[in-house]
Amino acid sequence: MNRSGQGLRLCWKAFDFCCQDVREYCEEKRKVKVMQTAVATFPPLVENAQVADPVRRFLEYVLNKREQGNPVVGVYCGYAPVEMIRAMGAVPVSLCAASQRTVPAAEAVLPANLCPMIKSSFGFIQTNSCFFFASSDAVIGETTCDGKKKMFELIAHLKPTFIMDLPQLPDDSAVLDRWRESVLKLQYFLEKTLQTSLAADRLEAEIRETNRKNRLMGRFFAYLTCRPIPVSWREIYNVITLEHVANSVEFQDLIEKISSSIDQRIALGQCFGTFSSPRVLVSGCPVGGDACKVLQIIEEAGGVIVALEACSGMKNYFIRIEENSGDPLRAVAESTLSIPCSCMTPNRRRLDLLDKMITRFQPDAVIDVVLHACHAYNVESYKIRNHIQDRHGLPCLKIETDYSDGDIEQIRTRVEALFESLETRK
Ligand code: SF4
Ligand code: SF4
């Protein structure tokens, strides 16, 4: 396979992108299920085909980078230190992981009662339909959960693969040293596999890039505090994905154009929902690809999404990496380790993050999305619900789901009941 990826079926569906054929498939399904969006359609946030089409944008970005000779590194998780990958001149790409279409192929090998994200990831590889996996020169996995780490054993022979040993007791005094050691081992692996080396000043520059982009993203997130809200959940996802294909200068330009479009919408009174539409914070497992049915249902039921806590949403953009620390590797390790994933125990930081997000985005309810068989997020959901109710007086609805569409009407009924209960609380 050459680096341009010629000859591959383009099939991509990671946390927040989907490829052309998968998207058409989903749109077809949506027609069948009559998932009509209730919200108005406004002009796009940016008049630019690249921006309006996240799928094409990302495919073209990766293909261009490969043509320029940049290696590609496939990642599955927010703990992968992307600044290090970029500092080595490589392109980090999130690998396909969120389509029901590849689940049956996976279930021929994996148990059916496994997290759909793991099954979908494996199915994409089994069916050779993840363009980005096929394009990857190396793959990074991590020991976040048992199903994932055992799945990695089944694919590790296909690509040079490095599994990062993630310490999961964030309050342990030695945790940062251990994680820095894992990050350092990854550096050695990438240097050997990609035949390159990591320069400290390049890593420092990438740290500044991430911080700049995260600050710019904060400007966009400020609009999510508006009531009524001027952007839809699809637009939130679309803007979030722009960061992956733009450097901070390009991203600043995009954010300025987007801000001006949103300001215009606000001036014209163009908003999604009304002043009293239920504002929802969605938390929990990554929600992308076919799991986005939950977000779609929330809007169709009359709600608006004002915050997405998961890794596929806003969580990682609140992170700031220490600059000029003298040990950029440690700074990167520290920032990734601060991600409050439920694989951590105790995971107090997730409650702290939710407190901040609730204070800032003022939701009327929290919907905690748990993917089937994700025990960590499922067990933690009890704590999350109690915290949200006791500390903030907000209702918290747990939805367990997968990537199939069999539960769409059941989810719709539960979301509508939640919104009705909000009415009676007024
Ligand atoms: S939820 Fe946890 S395991 Fe999943 S991508 Fe985020 S950090 Fe990784
Ligand atoms: S959602 Fe849960 S079970 Fe699935 S890959 Fe992520 S941490 Fe593992």
TrEMBL record:
It comes from the Bacteria. Gene3D superfamilies: 3.40.50.11890, 3.40.50.11900. InterPro entries: FldB/FldC_alpha/beta, YjiM-like. It holds the Pfam family HGD-D. PANTHER family: 2-HYDROXYGLUTARYL-COA DEHYDRATASE, D-COMPONENT-RELATED, DEHYDRATASE SUBUNIT YJIM-RELATED. Belongs to the FldB/FldC dehydratase alpha/beta subunit family. This is Benzoyl-CoA reductase/2-hydroxyglutaryl-CoA dehydratase subunit, BcrC/BadD/HgdB. It comes from Syntrophus aciditrophicus (strain SB). The lineage of its organism: Bacteria, Pseudomonadati, Thermodesulfobacteriota, Syntrophia, Syntrophales.
